[in-house]
Amino acid sequence: MSSIREVARLAGVSPATVSRVINGTARVAPEKQAQVLKAIAETEFIPNEVARSLFKKSSRTIGLILPSIRNPFFTQLAGAVDEAAKANGHYVLLCNVGGDLEEERAALRMLTAMNADGVLIASTHEAIQAELSQCDRPVVAVDSLFDTLDINGYVYCDYYRGGWLAAQHLWECGCQNLVCIRGPQDIFSARARYRGYRDFCRAYGIPQQTMDCDYDFDAGMAMTEELLRTYPAVDGIVACNDIVAISIYKILHKRSIAVPDQIQLIGFDDIALSSLISPELTTIRQPIREMAVKAVELILGRKDAPKRGERHVFPVSLVVRETTRDRAQQPQSGRSVTP
Fold it and tell me: Which of 20, 72, 219, 238 could share a disulfide with 180, CB 3.0–4.6 Å?
C-alpha cells in the first residue's frame, strides 16, 4: 500500500502539501493540487481515515443504534438513514443491540470513541437518558421520547392519532367487537398507540378489549390463539405493528377465518411487506424516509447548536388495502369525533 510520502515524491511536493490537498485545510496552488491528485490516482493511495478523523474531529460517520434489525420497521429505517447519510457524504455504523440496555450503553461508548459525527438511537430504555445527556456527540432519538432535553432532538410520529385512526377505520367499516393488540407498555410509541385506541372507544361508547404482545412474529401467533379463545366474537383487530398483524393473519388463515369477511385487520408502520402479502394489509403509515432525513439533518446541523431536545413529530396516515372492507358500503352511525 502506498504512503503519503510516495505520493509527495511522485507529485514533486512536500508531504504537508499532500495532506493539505486531502484534508482541504489550506489553500494549495491549482497546479500543485492537480499534481497531487494525479499522483494519488496513480499510486491508488488511500488516506488513513482514523488519523484524519482525529485531526479534523470528524470521521464522516453516523452511529445508528437499533433495538432489533429483525423488526422490518428498523431495517427500513436503517436503509433510509444510510441513504440520507450518503447523500451528505457520510457512512453509517450500525449497532444492533437486541433490546439490551447494557449493549446500548456499550454501543454509545464505542461510537464516541470512534469519533462518530453523531448518534441516532431508537431505544426502548428510559434508563439510557443519563448517557445520552452526557454524550459529547450530537444525539437524536428516533421512534423514542424521553424526559431529557439534553440531546439534539426527538424524531417520531403522532402515534396517538395512529391508534385513533386505526380504531376509527374498523368502526366505520362496520366492526362492533374491536380488540386492540397492545405493544409493550413500557415503550413510548406503544403506550401512545394504545391511548389513541382507548380514547376513540371512550368517545363512542365502545367496550375496550385488549391483548398484550411483543413486537414479534412468534409472539403474535401465540397471542392470536389466546385472543380467539378470550374474544370469540371479535370482528376487528388493531395490531400493534405490521409484523404482528401478519402473524395474526397467518393464524386466522390456518383457522379458515376469512379476512376481511369475518374479521377485519389493521396494522401499524406500513413496512414494505405489508403490500407484498396477500391479502394486502391495511395499515397506519409512518413516513420512515422523511423521519430518517430529518434525523440525519439534525445530526449534521450546526456543530454549536444547543441541545434542547426539540420534538419533530411527523403525521401518520391511513393506508386502506385488502384486510378491511370498503367502508362506503357500511352503515354510518353516531357522531364524528376527532382526536
Answer: 238
Q: What was the pLDDT predicted at 92?
A: 96
Cβ contact 316:161 at 8 Å: yes
Give dist(CA 135, CA 81) in Å, integer: 21
**Alpha-carbon 60 to chain mean position:** 21
Cβ neighbours, 10 Å, residue 300: 18
Ranges of residues in the chain whose predicted pLDDT is under 70? 1, 23-26, 46-58, 327-338
The reply to whether 243 and 172 lie within a common domain is yes
The number of folded domains in the chain is 3
Give all strands of the β-sheet with 139-142 in edge-to-edge order. 91-96, 61-66, 119-121, 139-142, 153-157, 311-314
Q: 35: domain range?
A: 4-47
248: in domain: yes
Q: What is the pLDDT of residues 254-272, one digit of tens each?
A: 999 999 999 999 999 999 9
Residues 20 and 87 in one domain: no
Cβ atoms of 268 and 193 within 8 Å: the answer is yes
Quick one: 281 and 297 in the same domain?
no
CATH of the domain at 74: 3.40.50.2300
pLDDT digits (tens, 9 = 90+) for 160-173: 999 999 999 999 99
15 in the same domain as 103? no
Cell numbers 367487537 correspond to 177
The verdict on 214 and 278 lying in the same domain is yes
In a domain, 172, yes or no: yes
